[in-house]
């Protein structure tokens, strides 16, 4: 194995205005590569997630805006780890 992804489950943030949605930091670790990280919005009830990168923001209601949501199965490791702790 040359690389893996980790979810920082100790710093998951919940969105009180959007029940079931959380923000978690994802870390990408690769052999002989610098560690990279980025925040991800996870929708536990909708089984989807979105990387919060350039262009992503929050609207007045606290919803994620400008991010591309990806539908994932309930067995998705990022969804499972975030929703179990969020």
Mean of residue pLDDT values: 90
- Taking all Cα atoms into account, the compactness measure Rg is 13 Å
Helix content: 10-25%
Oligomer: single chain
- End-to-end separation: 28 Å
Key descriptive features of the protein:
86 residues, mainly beta, 6-stranded antiparallel beta sheet, two-stranded antiparallel sheet
Nutshell version of this structure?
By secondary structure, the chain is mainly beta. Helices cover 10% and strands 41% of the residues. The longest helix is centred in the C-terminal third of the chain and has 9 residues, at 77-85.
Structure commentary:
This protein is mainly beta and 86 residues long. It is 10% helix and 41% strand. It contains one helix and eight strands. The strands form two sheets. Strands 1, 2, 3, 4, 5 and 8 form a six-stranded antiparallel β-sheet that branches. A two-stranded antiparallel sheet has the order 6-7. The model has no long low-confidence stretch (mean pLDDT 90).
Summarize the topology:
Layout: E1 3-7, E2 13-14, E3 21-30, E4 36-43, E5 48-51, E6 57-58, E7 64-65, E8 70-71, H1 77-85
């Amino acid at each position: 194995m040359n690389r893996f992804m980790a979810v920082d489950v100790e710093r998951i943030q919940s969105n009180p205005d959007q029940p079931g949605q959380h923000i978690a930091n994802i870390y990408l670790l690769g052999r002989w590569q610098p560690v990279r990280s980025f925040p991800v919005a996870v929708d536990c009830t909708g089984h989807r997630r979105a990387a919060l990168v350039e262009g992503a923001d929050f609207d007045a209601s606290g919803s994620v805006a400008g991010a591309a949501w990806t539908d994932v199965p309930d067995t998705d490791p990022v969804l499972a780890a975030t929703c179990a702790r969020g």
